Amino acid sequence: MRRNTTAASPSLTRPIMMLSVFLLSLPLIGCNTSQSDTDNTVTATQTLKVNTFTLQAADHYTVEREYVGMVQAGQQANLGVELGGKVAKLWVDVGDTVTAGDPLITLDTQMLKTQSDELTARQAQVTAQLELIEANLKRQRALKSKGFSAESEIDNLRSQRNALKANYRQLTASLAANQLQQQKSTIYAPYDGIVSERFVSTGDVINTGSPTFTLLASSRKEAHIGIPAKQLPKLAAITDWTLRIGTATYPVSLLNPGANVERGSRTVKLRFALPADANVINGELAYLQFHDRHDQAGYWIPLSAMTDGIRGVWNVFALRSNNAGDSVSEAAPAQTVERRTIQVLHANSDHAYVTGAIKHNEKIIADGLHRLVPGQAVSPVKKLPLPLDLSQSEATQ
């Protein structure tokens, strides 16, 4: 009996074990089916949402250019002396305001005054000699009438008188020259202005022509600005000019359209007259703002919509319908990312003007390009406006 029981045990145990394994595997199969359904649901609900931007075609773009120059006085003279001498007195100093005719500097005139006294004395001597000659002539004529004087004596006295008169005229001219030198020993302001520099001090001995002061005219202030020669035809159409100096803006008028290209800067210098009430200082920087228009078709896009591509080119990500090559409306549940190559024509701090494999009213992804790859399915959620309404603002320029 024991042997029959032992032999039947293996045959009964095997079906029982298989049944147990099958029953235990049923929950696992259900779990796997539930997990697969969950993964499909998550994949369907996690399509990436992106901000979109609708391209608007433009026929031109404008570059804001700014050219810099300097404020200069209408007149700027380095006042020098016509005669050399010792500086006796300085009437003004740097920063002083003067009017035309005010004395600026006086040289020592002691030697000139001594020469003037000498000339005056010599003139008096000649006058005395002339009086004597006239008296002698009168006497000789009286004697001649009585037959006691020769004609030669009278001729000799006449010659001496003429020589003394010539000497008197020479002394008079020398005395006038001396007075003129004394007058020119003082330098006077030729116009109203401000003393900007002083080159001498009291006691200095200066030569003829040495500069003493720099005088800047207080009226007719100007701004000199260099412009590239190629921009002159575009600037010729401007009638209302405006310059920015410091924080203030001034309306100006063009005095000189430029005569030649300067060798150093290779620019043409334009002269602008500032208003009489302009509160500016000589040497301040003046800025001329110029809207440089370029007639070339393209599109304004935000910088965040650009990404670098292969071999240094720029790309944007456009939206493509899953069923067609063109972009579809934002109501579509999902669209595909497509890489497009563009060329940047101009860029500022926020936007770029581009052209390339894009077209009007096409939608591109506005930001977050680092999260995307070409061919990825995305869902647009909104459309960004044209940056800063650039197309409308440029149309008015």
Automatic annotation (TrEMBL):
Entries under Pfam families matching the protein: BSH_RND (PF25917)
Gene Ontology MF terms: efflux transmembrane transporter activity
GO cellular component terms, semicolon-separated: efflux pump complex
Record keyword Protein transport present: no
Keyword Metal-binding recorded: no
Signal peptide: 1-30
Annotated Multidrug resistance protein MdtA-like barrel-sandwich hybrid domain residues: 76-216
Gene3D superfamilies: 2.40.30.170, 2.40.420.20, 2.40.50.100, Helix hairpin bin
UniProt keyword list: Signal
Family: Belongs to the membrane fusion protein (MFP) (TC 8.A.1) family.
Name of the protein this chain belongs to: RND transporter
Species of the source: Photobacterium aphoticum
